Amino acid sequence: MLLPGESLEHYEMLRQAIFADLAPRSVIEWLLAIDIAELSWEIQRYRLLRHKLLESYRQKAIEAALRRIDMIRIAPEFQGEAEYYTLQNALSWRIDPVARTEIDTRLAAHGFDQLAISTEVYVQAREMFVLFEGLLNAAQTKRMLLLREIRNVRLAAGPAGLRR
Fold first, then answer.
1. From what superkingdom does this record's organism come (predicted)?
2. Which pTM does this prediction carry?
């Protein structure tokens, strides 16, 4: 099943490549190959979603760093407005290359290099990152088991089970 924004064409290309590589020889092998294709698509999906998640958390890390720099000398009565501008700056950092360069320079001047930002990203995203790692590992393990099952079916069939 495809999610909104996923390409049916890319899915079909992946599926056909897997079918061509596995060359299923029986109904059982075809069913296993279909499951392998589905799991392979899920793995790609999880990787893409994990990447998008990290992008989102990177924006939050930029936001947190900007807050530490910009909010330090703001009077309490102006904190709400300053918070709004901090959120806008973090969004600009994400979508505007010029703003990104300016903000990265400003952050670096205050000791927030890309390594510090990345550390903040992983600290903030650790629970979700662990979730995606678990999903990826489970799907990869299932895929490997299915590949072994195809091998076992072929070994059990022996040379007589091979079709030409």
1. Bacteria
2. 0.76
